[in-house]
User: Fold this.
Amino acid sequence: MARTLVAEHLAGCVNILPGVQSVYRWQGDVAEDPESMLLIKTSGEKYPELEARIKSLHPYEVPEIIALQYDRALPEFQSWLREALNP
Assistant:
């Protein structure tokens, strides 16, 4: 998924954090599964397309997609991200 999102210019970078153990309620039961967390860097403009693509690729019926807006970032990083998101 990470490689696809970057290749399609929906993300400039994806960090994969393996070894996450999730405990959650699903369909009335408590479930526990190993997962990997993805930290995906994109722009506000690309977010709707990114979200739709994640939903199409993800095996879960309801994937955990949480967007965090930032009000500050290194200007050089912002420039790099804008360039990385342009095909």
Summary: DSSP finds three helices and two strands in the chain. The longest helix spans residues 47-57. Strands lie at 13-26, 29-41. The helical segments are 2-7, 47-57, 75-85.
